[in-house]
Structure formats: structure tokens, C-alpha cells
Amino acid sequence: MLEILQKRLRLIAEYEIPEWALRLEEVGGPGVGGTELAYTPHFVHAAENDKEFVAMALESSIPRTWEEAAWCYVYGKFRACIVMSAALLEITLRYELYRRDITKDTWALGKIIKRCSQEGIISDPIRSLAELINQRRNDIMHSNIQRQRPKSLLYHTGDEHEIEPITNLSRILVTADGKPAAIPPNAEHSYSVVFEFKRAARASLFDTRDILKYFYSSPLTEDGEKNESKN
Question: So where are the chain's domains?
Fold first, then answer.
């Protein structure tokens, strides 16, 4: 049974690899600057009390969560990418609050964004990006799109989705014996594929990366303040 499942997985992977490769290129490829985060904090080197252990755990979770979110996008798990991008945003903002001794744990992401703005931790443009990431996350987590914009999901009329023409029908049309079907000339122009939430996932992933770049692309002071030139 295990060998049969392995064979099926290899066939699935062979079919999906062209799309995976395109999306891997979009995120910057494998390695640093792509699926491995180029902008990460390195402030906590040891922990002696509960607060420091929390800060260390939050800090170490930032690159790991980015990697998971990026691979969700590459593998076409767009809803998961949206949720993981929002999780990464929350981890990052909580980390920045902890570094300033603001440790309230009961806030949801919306309140965390608001508090970071009030404290001057994030600029107005960064707050706008954060709120968009949270909005996309709420569409998925709280069924907002189903309840508030059902036609966007049912008919793919919303900006969340991406519709692409199919240029190689042999990948999807086969005969009973598994061979490519005969494709009439110019038939490719009549077919397209819908990637639900792909556009929203890409936006959330890249918006999150921009926020991380805002925080960690240049040195911060010991108390976590941004250099004035970055604001």
C-alpha cells in the first residue's frame, strides 16, 4: 500500500511541478531572500526569566513561520498561506510589543495592530498593510467572504482570485488509456483555470515580507526603536 501511495504522490508532483516552479520563482526561489527569510531579528541571545523566554520563542518563530507561509503559497495552499501570513504578522507585532514591556496576551490581531500604531511602533503605511493582512485572514477564518461576498467565491468575480488561461490542455484532457486527448486547433483560448484566493495569498505574503523588512532590514536601538530615516 505504501508503494502505491508513493507512486501516486510522484505522479501528482510531476503534474504540479510546473506551477510550483512558477510560484517558487515569484517568492524569490529557495534559500535566503525567497523561502528563507532575509529579514529576521537577532536580539535575544539568552533567557533568564519568563518574559525573556517568551521573547526568545517569538523571535525564533518569525523565520520558521515565514518559511511555512511561503511554501503554502508555492504548493498552492492559498487559504493556508493567508492564515499563516497573518499568524506571522501577529508573532512579529507581539514580539515588538514584548521588547517594549507591553505584554498583554488577550488582544486579538486587530487590537495588536492598533496598539502598535498608538505606540509608534509602526508607521501609518505599515498599519495599512497590517490591516489588509488581517482583513484577508478574517475572510478565511470567520467566513466573511461566504457571508458578505458570496458571489465572489461562487463565481470568482472578486479580486481575491486569479484566473489564468490554459495554454497546454494536454495536461488536463486525457483519453481513457491515459494518453493526451486530441486537441482542436486554437482550443486553448477557450479554457482557463481559477486559482481561488491566489491573488489574496500573494498579497498577504508579500505585505508581510514588507513589514518584516520595515522592522529588520536596518539596525534597531536596544529598546527596539526604528532609525528615524526608516519612518
Answer: 2-161+196-218
